[in-house]
Amino acid sequence: MTTEAPAGRLIRSRACIAEGCAFLAADPRLAATLEVTGLPPLRRRADGFAPLLGAIVGQQVSTASAAAVMARLHAAGLTGPRAIRAAPDEALRACGLSRQKIRYARALAEARLPWRALRDAPDTEVIATLTQVPGIGAWTAQIYAMLSLGRADVFAPGDLALQEAARLILDLPGRPDARALAAIAEAWSPWRAVAARLLWAYYRVAKQREGIA
User: Among 96, 114, 152, 172, whose Cα sits 20 to 30 Å from the Cα of 182?
Assistant: First the structure.
């Protein structure tokens, strides 16, 4: 079951995913989606500096490329704020970071974010705090809130996979933009983060059917 905290409803286990899906299945279109995908995965990650650095590294690159860069950063011992602050640009570049992402990594290291406090902060405060850091936009902050902090009612309407999955599931004439998808997702509250997991799961199934990697 979910845990109620000052921050609101939290997703901690597969039982939480099942509870959210039971709520979402009141919409026949999502119920049909669930029949196709099965219970979507938990997708929980650790919180703190390294996972958020990983989210920055993953911006606008493939999952495989991001994983390779993060593996090199881990091997070099460059996944903590002190190490990032002390490292020369050449060391970060050798791990695969672009000039822009080196700047973002250093900004994150200098931000000294209150990681423990963020665990209990309201969703809006989490997003506002994270997006003050250069290189962290709404999408990155929302993904961190959903997956690293387990927030049950956060959604990432700017995510292209979610937009495409919504188009397919809801039989929309075109892919909804972030504003349109945010409005659609309001009906999925207080389980919007579970809806996101369901849409991601369906997107993967749909792309496999189309033969797209």
Answer: 114
